[in-house]
């Protein structure tokens, strides 16, 4: 998986553009309204989704598997970001606690065991009254069912990426033990669920 993303960032650079996602904007607003100041962004990529949190004066730490993406982020944001190089499956990278955690379009790239570990590790790094927000692709995406099946609702697509497609039942099953509060649909490139959990 790390080789795939390394090649993708090397060949396409800022492949999703420079503007943050609507989910990042919405999450930064929610974190600001809650008075949060310290945010963790697993899968920070080249940093575009850090921008709305930084603009609201929050301290942002990221985790990223691609060294190329980290270099792009450092070039853009310099010392404004602290980024750990590694896989989110190896969390935690520090002993810090965070007010807010935002993970966009990441969790559906993991297998069931890794998803559960990732959710649990994020929850354990939340401060009391902290919030974590995940976005996950839904079964309403046009790509659902395409490619080679590699498990229930999971398909290998795009030259080797394995994607799990969520519905409300799978969200309830995976997040209910970790303070699940709300689920709403948001449209990015594909239909996503925006999943909020509170500690």
Question: What features would you describe in this structure?
Answer:
- The chain is 30% helix and 31% strand.
- With 199 residues, the protein is an alpha/beta fold.
- The strands form two sheets. It has a seven-stranded mixed β-sheet with strand order 3-2-1-4-5-10-9, with helices on both faces.
- β6 and β7 (154-157) form a beta hairpin.
- It is globular, with a radius of gyration of 16 Å.
- The relative contact order is 0.15.
Secondary structure elements and their pairing?
Layout: H1 2-12, H2 22-33, E1 38-42, H3 51-55, E2 59-64, H4 67-77, E3 81-85, E4 98-103, H5 112-124, E5 126-137, E6 148-151, E7 154-157, E8 161-164, H6 168-175, E9 180-187, E10 191-198
Parallel strand pairs: 1-2, 1-4, 2-3, 4-5
Antiparallel strand pairs: 5-10, 6-7, 7-8, 9-10
Radius of gyration: 16 Å
Largest sheet: 7 strands, mixed
N to C succession of SSEs: HHEHEHEEHEEEEHEE
Strand order of the largest sheet: 3-2-1-4-5-10-9
The residue ranges in which pLDDT falls below 50 over 5 or more consecutive positions are 8-13
Percent of residues in β-strands: 25-35%
DSSP strand count: 10
Helix count equals: 6
Class based on secondary structure composition and strand pairing? alpha/beta
Mean pLDDT: 91
Estimate the global geometry from the Cα principal axes.
Answer: globular
Helix content: 25-40%
Taking the alpha carbons of the first and last residues, their distance comes to: 31 Å
